[in-house]
Write a structure and sequence with these properties.
Order of helices and strands: EEEEHHH
Strand order of the largest sheet: 1-2-4-3
Number of domains: 1
Largest sheet: 4 strands, mixed
Oligomer: single chain
Radius of gyration: 13 Å
Helix content: 40-55%
Length: 91
């Protein structure tokens, strides 16, 4: 994430998603995760901002009913990387 204040939540389709920064994610080999059932996104505070966008893409796909696509980690990673790059290079 950037030096700006880290977000703590966002809304999608009338649901609030809580963002929790967890220093223990690397202990289980992850930089982030999203739990659709609880509406919580977990992010390692040291992770690159693309990690947030990767997890956000899981969130979007799950909310739109694209569960199979959300399970495709390569697809989700590519979407997250694209969104991250677009936002970084906006002029």
């Amino acid at each position: 994430m950037s030096r700006r204040k880290k977000p703590t939540q966002f809304d999608i389709m009338s649901r609030t998603i809580k963002i929790i920064y967890d220093n223990n994610l690397l202990d289980v080999g992850q930089h982030g995760s999203y739990d659709h059932d609880t509406g919580k996104m977990y992010i390692d505070p040291k992770a690159h901002q693309s990690t947030f966008w990767h997890e956000a893409m899981h969130c979007v796909l799950d909310h739109l009913g694209y569960e199979e696509e959300s399970k495709n980690e390569q697809f989700v990673e590519q979407l997250g990387q694209c969104i991250c790059q677009i936002l970084q290079t906006l002029k």
